[in-house]
């Protein structure tokens, strides 16, 4: 999955909708454009990580997807954390079909 596809997957996970007028993903009923540089900005990625971790509080913290997110955070490696978030969202989407 390339960066644009990954960032689109994250935007959808966060409930953003695609604005044909603006050509970007936006939060419904918001006049502020969301920051969607998930692959290069910790400020943009951290709310997504928070949602992943809090989405399934009963989920074992040793689950592979969450463990990979934690590893990316502990290594301060945004590429690793971003990839782990993508992995988590794919898993989330698969079980919620």
Strand order of the largest sheet: 1-2
Global structural class: mainly alpha
Measured distance between first and last alpha carbons: 20 Å
Average residue-wise pLDDT: 88
Give the radius of gyration.
13 Å
H/E series:
HEEHHH
Q: List unreliable stretches of 5+ residues.
A: none
- Principal-axis shape: globular
Largest sheet: 2 strands, antiparallel
Number of strands: 2
Strand content: 5-15%
Number of domains: 1
Per DSSP, the total helix count is 4
Question: Which percent bin holds the helix content?
Answer: 55-70%
Task: Summarize this structure briefly.
By secondary structure, the chain is mainly alpha-helical. It is built from four helices and two strands.
Record the SSE blueprint.
Layout: H1 3-13, E1 17-19, E2 24-26, H2 42-55, H3 64-74, H4 78-95
Antiparallel strand pairs: 1-2
Provide structural commentary.
The protein has one domain (3-95). It has four helices and two strands, in the order H-E-E-H-H-H. Helix 3 runs antiparallel to helix 4. Strand 1 and strand 2 form a beta hairpin. It is mainly alpha-helical and 97 residues long. It is globular, with a radius of gyration of 13 Å. The protein has a two-stranded antiparallel ribbon. Helix content is 56%, strand content 6%. It has helices at 3-13, 42-55, 64-74, 78-95, and strands at 17-19, 24-26. The mean pLDDT is 88.
